[in-house]
């Protein structure tokens, strides 16, 4: 087995295409016309913690920090405090409302415009009851565009995007995705 095959299997590199490449529809000539627009939250948001749960976790965290202080493990205390701060900042900041637009020449993703030749495929995911449109880009950064979608608009968006991009029924997953799903399923959180 070659090293490239191993890294492809683990999901570290993209496997080489076996079938013929997908031909993307050419960008229509002429003026840019709006085909569909919607406003939604910039990211799905769910309140994870109740006040009782937060107080319990703080008490447990303080107890663990005291034990670590007695063991003179100050690096671990700083690491735990930084993880808690990041989690707190990400959950307390509410998402903002952004406008997404689909044109005949590309997608306007919260003010950033991507042309069809810069995009490859798309699929829909559902996380905690929130529908999300995921559009893959050819460039490494950003790699994927995540656009939250209102439930009633999903079919209309799918119909428009299928004219320009390839629709994937199942979200592609790599080694990291599969491992994460397996670990989360084991803990049954």
Strand-helix topology:
Layout: H1 3-10, E1 34-41, H2 51-70, H3 74-92, E2 97-103, E3 106-109, E4 112-115, E5 119-127, E6 130-137, E7 144-149, H4 154-161, E8 166-167, H5 175-187
Parallel strand pairs: 5-8
Antiparallel strand pairs: 1-2, 2-3, 3-4, 5-6, 6-7
Helix pairs in contact: 2-3
Describe the protein's architecture and organization.
The protein is of the alpha+beta class and 189 residues long. Helices cover 36% and strands 25% of the residues. The chain is built from five helices and eight strands, in the order αβααββββββαβα. The chain has helices spanning 3-10, 51-70, 74-92, 154-161, 175-187; strands spanning 34-41, 97-103, 106-109, 112-115, 119-127, 130-137, 144-149, 166-167. A four-stranded antiparallel sheet has the order 1-2-3-4, with helices on one face. The longest helix has 20 residues, at 51-70.
């Amino acid at each position: 087995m070659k090293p490239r095959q191993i890294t492809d299997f683990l999901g570290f590199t993209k496997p080489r295409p076996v079938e013929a490449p997908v031909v993307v529809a050419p960008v229509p000539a002429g003026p840019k016309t709006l085909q569909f627009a919607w406003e939604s939250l910039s990211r799905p948001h769910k309140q994870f913690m109740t006040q009782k749960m937060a107080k319990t976790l703080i008490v447990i965290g303080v107890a663990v920090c005291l034990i670590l202080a007695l063991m003179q493990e100050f690096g671990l205390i700083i690491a735990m405090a930084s993880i808690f701060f990041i989690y707190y900042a990400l959950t307390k900041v509410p998402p903002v409302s952004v406008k997404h637009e689909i044109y005949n020449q590309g997608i306007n993703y919260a003010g950033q415009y991507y042309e069809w030749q810069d995009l490859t495929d798309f699929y829909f995911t559902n996380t905690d009851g929130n529908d999300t449109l995921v559009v893959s880009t050819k460039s490494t950064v950003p790699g994927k565009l995540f656009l939250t979608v209102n439930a009633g608009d999903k079919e209309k968006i799918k119909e428009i995007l299928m004219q320009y991009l390839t629709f994937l029924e199942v979200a592609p997953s790599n080694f990291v995705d599969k491992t994460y799903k397996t670990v989360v399923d084991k803990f049954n959180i």
